[in-house]
Design goal:
Elements lengths: L2 H8 L8 H12 L7 E2 L3 H8 L3 H13 L3 E5 L8 E4 L10 H13 L23 H19 L59 H4 L22 H40 L1 H26 L4
Antiparallel strand pairs: 1-3, 2-3
Helix pairs in contact: 1-2, 2-3, 2-4
Amino acid sequence: MSIHLMLVAAYLPADVVTQGQKLALMKICDSADDETRLSKPGMKRVRAWVGCGEKRCTTIVTELVAKGLIERVEVGMLGRRAVYRVFPLGVPPIPSNDDLDARFQAADAAPKNPNKARSGITRAAPSKPAMTHEDIDARTREDLDVQELAAGEGVRREPGFHGWNPDDDEARVPPVEPQGFHGGNPKGSTGGTPSFPSSTGVLPFPPTPAADAAGEPRGCPKHSTPAASCRGCKTNPRAERAARERERAEAERQSQREFMENWHADQAQARQVARDRPQDVEAARQLARQAARAGREGLGDARSPEK
């Protein structure tokens, strides 16, 4: 345990290490030896100090290695802790009070957000710190008074919804007509309720969306009077195409079924002939062997070079 190294790590400025890196470095320094500066903190202890997950803790240790604040001497394995050397480039000195004052003055003078920094503007002095809860309540009341005075109200009210209805003479809507509406019916208007034109189709269903693109006739020839659509009686061109497709598929399946039945019948007949007349089967086999032999001999003569 090295108190000196842990104090050195605790006084590192914010532009060198983040809060998580500082906590991890302080734990590694807490487990280090004063002379060799070797430390075996263990990942569980470092995670407990930093308060993060295992992967984030490993990343923080790697960031400390990249900044030169620690170095790995031995890699940790199952059942063996990793060994680190603290401050391998040299131990920084502990800052004095003057150094800390200069550091904090520079930090206070620097803008909080450099992208939105405004030059030439002095910052207001901080208010007196609140000592008790009564001071905080007094500040809250002062803020409310300032807001209500800015709004022109004479009575201070608590934030939230009010618990009463407005007076009768208090008008919610100004007694004028909105500018977006006319003040009466236009010329030629009957003054009745407007209505939309009725549909020109006979049936309640419109034609198919792709009827024009596919060149389909806008009407059914099966009716005496062509209608806008025959979807209700299922005689529209799309339904007819679907029915023809189903009939074609059913005919194809029927032909395949008949082919398989005929094939099985032929195979059964051939097996029956083989059982009834085995001598004919053997004669056919001999003829097939002789034909194959003759074919091979003829092929060999054709491939041999001429003398």
